[in-house]
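We emphasize that the prediction below concerns an isolated chain of 94 residues; any contacts that depend on oligomerization or on bound cofactors are therefore not represented. The input was used exactly as deposited, without trimming of termini.
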Amino acid sequence: MDTTWRLLWRDDRYIDGSVPEEEKYYRFTQPDVKRSTQPTVAVNDQITWAESGAAAPKAGRWLVESDMATSVELKAGELLPLHQGRTVRWVLAE
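Result of the prediction step, given as a token string:
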């Protein structure tokens, strides 16, 4: 389907970078982003993983999923730490 656009009027209101008077009090809301406050933990027959801040479901050596050179030894129930200041997924090395 072909489309033809036509300019009905030239909008010069923004040329100098100022906000026009009629738009001065516009309020733009941002959507509420709902993030889970509980860290995720998954345990199955093949792999055990959890996010930073979660209690380790099992004792052992935990590896950062995106950086397998980084590991930490934890007892069951200890909290998985942040990695370089951010929440990451940890994988249990068995």
